[in-house]
Amino acid sequence: MGTTQAGGGATVRRMLLGTQLRKLRESRGVSREEAGYSIRASESKISRMELGRVGFKERDVADLLTLYGVEAEQERATVLGLVRDANASSWWHEYGDVLPAWFQNYLGLEEAATEIHSYEVQFVHGLLQTADYARAVITAGCQGQGVSAEDIERRVEVRLRRQDLLTAEHPPRMLAVLDEAALRRPWGGPGLMRGQLDRLLELAELPHVHLQVLALGTAGLAAESGAFSVLGFAEAELTDVVYLEQFTTALYVDKPAEVASYRQAMEGLQAESLSPEQTCDLLHSVRQEL
Known about the structure:
The protein is of the alpha/beta class. It has helices spanning 9-27, 32-38, 43-50, 58-67, 73-86, 101-112, 131-141, 149-162, 180-184, 190-203, 256-272, 276-289, and strands at residues 115-120, 173-179, 209-214, 228-232, 241-245, 250-253.
């Protein structure tokens, strides 16, 4: 089953378990439809299990192991033990009332990633936001939806807890390309934005954070479709995932050819953007203009 990195959490264990089940199924020549029938489920349920996007029932996994010809008691016990680990709750579950399920999936991937590459157009990336900036953005996004002040604060808490990744013992490598327009969008006024720019300058000093700005006047054709993130993992069994957030849902792309296209787009954006040193100079300049 491979090993998981410290901090990878239940999400990585689900993904590894799903990968193992897929390999067992394919080695026996069993279709997803046949596998689903054996556990009284659909083909799509098997697909979600194999991608690690849902929880696992021990009875279902036991039935699948039987179908796949896994009969050795020790091997079965090992896999079923992983089921229990994979179903462990993560810290964000206590915020389940204010977080959509599709975003909880992302939190698990983000926590497990050893590499996060992101391109943002409208906002500063969530991992790089100050509390005041996050509150202003979340409040604006909730207008007209009847969201209480308490729930807004809980969403801010989630955003700040996510940032613990950057100060962990083994933090992910983060490459953030940020459109200059996001820096000049006045969320909450000059004071708030000065604080956010100071935060970016602070984070840019970290050895595992690589920050670049795509300056105004640059075409940015490498990512004409908009913001995206590419998450990479230490485990060889796990494929990279592209995260595309939309208004009421998100897309998760993991087909290697498609992921490669996004990685190529990210390389293009890096080439078009200011260097990290030039980026810091721009951040200071924008701050002085406020």
